[in-house]
Design brief:
0% strand; mainly alpha
Amino acid sequence: MGKNFNRREFLRSSFLGFGTLFVISSPLKLFAAKNPATNDDLTIDAVLLNKQAKEFFYKKQYSEATQIYQQLITLFPDHISYYDGYAKVLGAQQKTLEVAELYRQGLMANSQAPLFMHRLSLRMVDLCTGNKKAELAFVNKYGENNIMEASALLLLQAITLLKKSNKGLYFNLRDIINIIDRRNKVLSDNGELPLKFPDNIKNQVLSATSLYENMWTVSRQSKKPLLTENGIEAEINNITNKQRRVLSFDAENKEREKTIKKEKKERWKLGLERNITNSKPSEVEKYATFILEENITDTDTIGKLRSYYKKNKHHNRLLSLNRYLYIKNSSLANSLALATSLSNYGNNASDLAEAGQLLSTIAPYVNTLTPVSIGAYYQTRAQLLNQINQSANARIILLEGIGKFEGKGGVSYSFFENYAQTFNKKNLNTGLDLMKALCGKEVKPIDDPVWKYVTAYLKDQKGKTISVAEQLKPLYTLAKLQKKAGSSEYSTTKSEIETLRSKIY
């Protein structure tokens, strides 16, 4: 694989073969003052050059940006910001090897600069984790066989040289151990030899990062933002009020705004999750509103809210949520969710009328909905009819919905449950027999149009593995109807339910 260099030889070794880096193809006449009298004049020119290079970068004119950054680095070899700018240009062109070589050249010119050590270390790790061809080229070129070891040594030295603690450097250093462990697991699974990483250096890394181990675990492993003792609100205020330098380009400002929004959203999400766990509905609603004001279609947040409100019977909050979503975006899905909430939790006739009106607007497009939404549409229509004592018409609607699925699948089962519960005491036996059949009990064919669909459903289910939870669902509904009918079989069904529940709990 090439000669083994020690660290000092590695950093001082020849930089031949670096290609076009730092070859000035044209003078700075375009930007420099004609007769710069002071260093200040030259600095001003450098600022203008840097701005011009960024503009070329955002326009994807990489050749022009490269030329300027090479000139800037030649004039100011100790300004790491110019290296960082050039690294972005190279990175945009997938030139991983060249980025590593760039920072290596910078460190050769600034051998005691910890930030150059840090940058080179990170880029060498990138070689090991993202581009095998570039990694081998780097090893062959500079004779450093164990790049991860060299990266760790560079970061350890950078930490020693820095006069104040930099949490990011400690996290990057601890990452190296994690990367090696993960990569060795893959190599082991493939029957390959593991990467070598000296125990003494590993111990140095673990010792140096020991104070940050818990913080690293939280921020790296859980992918959640790391919070200070001041809490979520303080973190959000810090993000909002942080003093930031003025940026010259719209692209930079947009990228910054995007980053700020992302950082805030991470903390809002954390606040939402914590308050759901602690069952604080007002705080849950507050953080959810922050998230949805940024992105009204955040399905993860909407799903968590609906689940939390249903589980804790916060029906008014659920209704308010669905109305809020509908006002913000009157899509078919939001219209249906509001109609269903109004039907389930509305307090007066006007709520039911509004639900009916919403369903009327959905009707022409019902076949474009997902299967679950189609089920919700027909069941909500039937529920509205049932609430005004039109149970026969409700069954007609449910039969239409069942027909969409030919009586098969989980959506059809939900239809059957609702269908069985539309019968009053006078003809409740039909509903009881329907549920008995769905529970796998022997019953005579029912003289009702739903029976052909029940037969199709049972035939479709035959031979399938049915979980205990799925077995319990029809039993719960059967027991409910038996209790309503005053049936002597209620106690038998209840006992059957308890037996099945004992297998779960």
